[in-house]
């Protein structure tokens, strides 16, 4: 069977190509469908909302610190988990019980390409992984705005209380920059991190990127009025899960945000 190295550097050998996969990562669920292997998924998380056919797969609940019994109940020959300290115990336990587990660190576009190939190898169809990685890469390049030097400086806020900003380690920063914007915290390598209100005031973003329809909770808070983008309600709204995970839809996410940024200017 396939011999694999997952994103934690662990060597995983499968007895045969995987045919019963529990995906504990929404982006992995999307990747498996894009690889033509949706029918091999026998369990998913409650957050796996794309494509629509994912709703027909039994849910095992949460993907972080997952319910081991629920996962085992789906009789998987492979479990794919997000690499995180919060999942370490579950991964160790599943492996002790003889279940093959791949840990994936899906944070950026380059991770998406690598993991498309990893999953295709697990399915025994490596060529499909190569072609998907190439196709998504070409789509992303085609969607990328070429003139990006003078783009608006944007704060990507993952959470507002306490404030958590997105740095260049996240695919959301990559989407923003490819769409023609500049991440005000793009000098920070981490995917996300807490920031002080003072730091936000200091960076003085032209606008704030919000995922979803709601006004951000800090919009009406007196201390946040020190941020001009909040006072003047300069929000760029994006909708849908393609902005909340790196997926084969990343080119569409760039195109949609590029349209929003063009009208924002």
Q: How much beta, percentage-wise?
A: 15-25%
- Low-confidence segments: none
Beta-strand segment tally? 12
CA-CA gap between termini: 54 Å
Range of helix content: 25-40%
Number of helices: 9
Give a verbal description of the structure.
This protein is α/β, with parallel strands linked by helices and 265 residues long. The strands form 3 sheets. Strands 7, 8, 9, 10, 11 and 12 form a 6-stranded mixed β-sheet that branches. The longest helix is centred in the middle third of the chain and has 18 residues, at 126-143. α8 links the parallel β11 (207-211) and β12 (235-238). The protein contains 9 helices and 12 strands. The chain is 34% helix and 18% strand.
Layout of SSEs?
Elements: E1 3-5, E2 11-13, E3 21-23, H1 26-34, E4 41-43, H2 68-73, E5 78-82, H3 88-96, E6 101-104, H4 109-122, H5 126-143, E7 153-160, E8 163-166, H6 171-178, E9 182-183, E10 192-194, H7 197-203, E11 207-211, H8 228-231, E12 235-238, H9 250-264
Parallel strand pairs: 3-4, 3-5, 5-6, 7-9, 7-11, 11-12
Antiparallel strand pairs: 1-2, 7-8, 8-10
Helix pairs in contact: 4-5, 5-9
């Amino acid at each position: 069977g396939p011999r694999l190295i997952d994103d934690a550097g662990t060597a995983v050998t499968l007895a045969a190509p995987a045919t019963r996969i529990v995906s504990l990562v929404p982006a992995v669920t999307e990747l498996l469908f894009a690889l033509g292997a949706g029918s091999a998924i026998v369990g998913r998380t409650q957050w796996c909302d794309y494509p629509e056919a994912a709703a027909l797969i039994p849910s095992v609940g949460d993907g972080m610190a997952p319910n081991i019994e629920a996962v085992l109940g789906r009789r998987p020959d492979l479990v794919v988990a997000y690499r995180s300290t919060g999942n370490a115990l579950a991964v160790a336990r599943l492996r002790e019980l003889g279940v093959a587990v791949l840990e994936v660190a899906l944070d950026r576009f380059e991770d998406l390409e690598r993991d498309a190939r990893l999953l295709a190898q697990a399915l025994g169809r490596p060529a499909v992984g190569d072609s998907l990685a190439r196709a998504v890469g070409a789509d992303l390049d085609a969607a990328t705005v070429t003139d990006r030097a003078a783009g608006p400086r944007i704060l990507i806020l993952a959470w507002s209380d306490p404030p958590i900003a997105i740095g260049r380690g996240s695919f959301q920063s990559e989407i923003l920059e490819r769409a023609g914007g500049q991440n005000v915290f793009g000098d920070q390598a981490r995917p996300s991190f807490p920031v002080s209100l003072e730091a936000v005031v200091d960076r003085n973003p032209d606008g704030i990127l919000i995922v979803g329809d709601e006004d951000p909770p800090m919009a009406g808070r007196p201390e946040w009025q020190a941020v001009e983008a909040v006072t003047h309600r300069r929000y760029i709204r994006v909708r849908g899960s393609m902005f909340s995970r790196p997926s084969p839809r990343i080119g569409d996410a760039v195109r949609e945000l590029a349209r929003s940024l063009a009208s924002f200017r």
